[in-house]
C-alpha cells in the first residue's frame, strides 16, 4: 500500500473511532439530560422524535422506536401525563388517534440543550464557509446512512415477528 493510501486509511480509522466516541457521548448526554428533566431517556428521545416528525400514530411511533405496542401505549401515557404530548383524533380518519407534541414543552426541551447548541456553534465558527459546507454534507450523508441502517433493522425485526 502506498504511503498516501496508508495515511488515508489511518485517518479514516481515527475518524471512525471518533464517530463512535461521538455517538456514545451523545447517548450519555441524552441520558443525563433526561435525568435532569425528570423523565426516562426513552421518553425524552420520543418527545424529540415527535418534534421532528410532527403528529403520528402510535403504530408509526412503534415502528420508529422498535417498541412493542404495549410499551408505546405506556410511553404515550407517561408523555401525556407529563405534558409533552396529547392524543388527538386524526382529522382525515376520525377512527385514528395521533400523538401530537405540545409545542410549549418542545421549547422547554430545546432550552435545556442551549448550552450544547452554543458550544457547538462556537466550534463551527472556527471553520470557513467552505469547510462548513463539506462538514454539513458529510453529516447529512451519515444521517442518511443511519436512517438506512435503522430501516434495515426494523425490517429484520418485522420479518422475525
TrEMBL record:
User: What InterPro entries has UniProt attached to this entry?
Assistant: HTH_MarR-typ (IPR000835), WH-like_DNA-bd_sf (IPR036388), WH_DNA-bd_sf (IPR036390)
Q: Which residues form the HTH marR-type domain?
A: 12-144
Q: Name one GO molecular function term.
A: DNA binding
Q: Which SUPFAM superfamilies did the record assign?
A: Winged helix' DNA-binding domain
Please indicate if the UniProt record lists NADP as a keyword. no
Against Pfam families, the record matches this protein to: MarR (PF01047)
- The organism's place on the tree of life at top rank: Bacteria
Per UniProt, the keywords (alphabetical) are: DNA-binding, Transcription, Transcription regulation
PANTHER family xref list: TRANSCRIPTIONAL REGULATOR, MARR, TRANSCRIPTIONAL REPRESSOR OF EMRAB OPERON
Protein name per Swiss-Prot or TrEMBL: DNA-binding MarR family transcriptional regulator
Amino acid at each position: 500500500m502506498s504511503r498516501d493510501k496508508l495515511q488515508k486509511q489511518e485517518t479514516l480509522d481515527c475518524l471512525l473511532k471518533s464517530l463512535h466516541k461521538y455517538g456514545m457521548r451523545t447517548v450519555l448526554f441524552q441520558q443525563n439530560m433526561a435525568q435532569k428533566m425528570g423523565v426516562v431517556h426513552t421518553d425524552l428521545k420520543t418527545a424529540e422524535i415527535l418534534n421532528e416528525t410532527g403528529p403520528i400514530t402510535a403504530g408509526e411511533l412503534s415502528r420508529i422506536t422498535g417498541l412493542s405496542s404495549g410499551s408505546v401505549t405506556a410511553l404515550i401515557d407517561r408523555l401525556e401525563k407529563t405534558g409533552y404530548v396529547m392524543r388527538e383524533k386524526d382529522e382525515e380518519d376520525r377512527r385514528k388517534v395521533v400523538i401530537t407534541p405540545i409545542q410549549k414543552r418542545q421549547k422547554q426541551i430545546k432550552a435545556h440543550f442551549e448550552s450544547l447548541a452554543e458550544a457547538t456553534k462556537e466550534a463551527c465558527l472556527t471553520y470557513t464557509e467552505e469547510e462548513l459546507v463539506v462538514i454539513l454534507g458529510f453529516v447529512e450523508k451519515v444521517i442518511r446512512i443511519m436512517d438506512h441502517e435503522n430501516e434495515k433493522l426494523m425490517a429484520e425485526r418485522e420479518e422475525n415477528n
